[in-house]
Design goal:
By secondary structure, the chain is an all-alpha fold. It folds into two domains: 57 residues, no CATH class; 236 residues, MetI-like fold. It is 69% helix and 0% strand. It contains 15 helices and no strands. Helix 4 crosses helix 8 and helix 8 runs antiparallel to helix 11. The longest helix has 44 residues. The termini are far apart.
């Protein structure tokens, strides 16, 4: 006889509890309690980290936004929603700074997101084809993404220097203007920030697109060809519908990443000229960490968060399935 209980013995004991056996009932309850607690034990490390680094900062940030919070002072006076009111009051100390930074964030987001949706898709369509050296080119397009923002920003700051930068030197060789102040004038600064960001991050979106393209059944393309569909028609009626879920994901993640841009502006342009390229995250960091106005900075961050939540909801709505609309009105079933 082995020391282990046979699998059939456990249900038998549990079932015995239903007949009134107290011992079997207690054993069955222990087994159910153990089975219910096991998933929570596996999730406990993640839940502890999530609570410490997500939930607690969110709650603390909301609490700080309701105070005149200066961490260099011993007391933090309660001001209620005054920090939020000041953000929407023209002429206040934070109104112009915050909404100027929101304008800069909108310019960067509107300028970068379309490129980061279209160019990676074109790259993925190209990389999905079979040709010699395909894996090498895939690696080349993805390679910049593994670099940190500090490396990318400092590298391009030197390349775009209007005095000794290689970009202006090459423009001069081509007979084009070679005195462009890429980091200290607009719109050149926006061209530089958007161009560098697209070059740096397009590989990530391209990889996601490529994986999604490979999941589209080849039979759909073959059926479309048999029906006489052109390449453009195949892209419109087969590729794009197949990419709908991934396109929604990429749009939201790219928009959120663009709206939270900080490192490129901080290291490449320093917010210049003036405050033109100082994004919302840049302004929040400066307000809270440099000017010690943590309450105002927390309020700014929550207003920005609400805007991003609203944009995400709109994008989900735009990419929702419209099957019911395509089917038209429902018809009543006709019975004989």
């Amino acid at each position: 006889m082995t020391s282990t209980m046979e699998p059939a013995a456990i249900p038998a004991r549990v079932a015995a509890g239903a007949t009134g056996d107290p011992a079997a009932s207690r054993a069955g309850k222990r087994l159910r309690d153990q089975a219910g607690a096991t998933p929570w034990l596996f999730m406990a490390p993640y839940l502890a980290l999530f609570a410490a680094f997500v939930v607690l900062p969110v709650v603390l940030g909301l609490w700080m936004s309701l105070h005149n919070w200066d961490y260099t002072m011993p007391f933090q006076p309660w001001v209620g929603f005054d920090n939020y009111v000041q953000l929407f009051t023209p002429g206040s100390t934070t109104f112009e700074l915050f909404w100027g930074s929101m304008r800069a964030t909108a310019i960067f987001t509107i300028g970068s997101v379309p490129f980061l949706l279209v160019i990676p898709l074109l790259v993925a369509l190209l990389m999905a084809q079979k040709f010699p050296g395909r894996n090498f080119f895939r690696a080349v397009y993805f390679a910049p993404y593994v670099l940190g923002v500090a490396v990318v920003a400092v590298l391009w700051r030197y390349l775009l220097d209007n005095n000794v930068g290689l970009v202006n030197s090459y423009l001069g060789v081509l007979g084009l203007p070679d005195d462009i102040a890429w980091t200290t004038s607009t719109p050149a600064a926006w061209v530089a920030l958007i161009g560098v960001t697209v070059w740096w991050t397009l590989g990530f979106n391209a990889v996601i697109y490529l994986a999604a393209l490979q999941d589209i059944p080849r039979e759909l393309y073959e059926a479309a060809k048999m029906d006489g569909a052109t390449a453009i028609q195949q892209f419109r009626h087969v590729t794009l519908p197949g990419l709908r879920p991934i396109l929604s994901f990429i749009t939201i993640t790219t928009l959120l990443a663009s709206a939270n841009m900080f490192g490129q502006s901080f290291l490449m342009t320093r917010g210049a000229p003036g405050r033109e390229t100082r994004t919302a995250i840049y302004q929040i960091a400066e307000t809270g960490l440099r000017n010690y106005q943590m309450g105002d900075a927390a309020a700014m961050s929550y207003v920005l968060t609400l805007f991003l939540i609203a944009l995400s909801v709109v994008i989900f709505w735009l990419f929702r399935e419209r099957d019911d609309a395509k089917r038209g009105p429902k018809t009543k079933e006709v019975r004989a």
